[in-house]
Backbone:
């Protein structure tokens, strides 16, 4: 089977699996991560075929997204075998995706794993990262912001300080670090403007 056909089959499988997700892990997230992973793999001289597949499937066996990770693992294994991937490729893919979640704070042991984790984290930064954060917060009925003076803050803006602004320092590859710097700056720009509007700081300028 040609590499392109394999990727196409995996894309179809994932698009069907994540069609109804509302937690920021829909098929478009898988698509963006797969494309970013491929880009990073080329720049980092890693196996872009194995990387791209790992990007597509990276959230498939996450405990928070499925009530039966073991079943998902078995189904994924069957698919990869049906698509005639080698045992070595299959092992590399499983190794990579087991460590991907930034919530679990695991450190990938392979280059493919590092690339997939970088790409997943990049999708939580920049304009798309901001959109995903507010979408996630909305799905949990969280306020957008409560004001700086509030304690025990469960707002989405607080999530920027708790998680998103730390991600830049946690990138593994040089290419992802550069992209993360850019997207990190954009978060700061957004937060500055957000606070100016929240506290009416620009009133005198108009
Ligand atoms: P992972 O990507 O490892 O599955 P998460 O489920 O924590 O990790 O994050 C998925 C997306 O949801 C990210 O874009 C993240 O910023 C967002 N998100 C997670 N927790 C929160 C939160 N408490 N408030 C706002 N957004 C969140
Ligand atoms: Ni993800």
Residues:
């Amino acid at each position: 089977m040609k590499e392109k056909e394999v990727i196409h089959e995996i894309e179809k499988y994932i698009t069907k699996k994540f069609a109804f997700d509302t937690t920021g892990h829909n098929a478009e997230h898988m698509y963006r991560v797969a494309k970013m992973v491929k880009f990073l793999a080329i720049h980092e001289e890693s196996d872009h075929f194995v990387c791209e597949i790992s990007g597509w499937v990276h959230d498939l066996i996450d405990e928070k997204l499925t009530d039966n990770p073991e079943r998902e693992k078995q189904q994924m294994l069957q698919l990869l075998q049906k698509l005639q991937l080698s045992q070595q490729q299959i092992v590399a893919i499983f190794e990579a995706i087991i460590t991907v979640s930034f919530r679990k704070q695991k450190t990938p042991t392979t280059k493919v794993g590092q690339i997939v984790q970088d790409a997943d984290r990049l999708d939580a930064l920049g304009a798309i990262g901001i959109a995903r954060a507010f979408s996630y917060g909305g799905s949990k009925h969280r306020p957008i912001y409560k004001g700086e003076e509030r304690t025990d803050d469960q707002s989405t803006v607080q999530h920027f300080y708790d998680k998103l602004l730390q991600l830049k320092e946690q990138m593994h590859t040089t290419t992802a670090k550069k992209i993360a710097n850019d997207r990190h700056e954009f978060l700061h720009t957004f937060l500055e403007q957000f606070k100016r509007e929240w506290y009416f700081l620009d009133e005198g300028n108009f």
Summary: The chain is about 60% helix and 0% strand. Residues 24, 101-103, 120, 124, 129, 132-133, 136-137, 156, 159, 164 surround adenosine-5'-diphosphate (ligand 1) (CB under 6 Å). The domain at 124-206 is CATH 1.20.58.1910 (Methane Monooxygenase Hydroxylase; Chain G, domain 1).
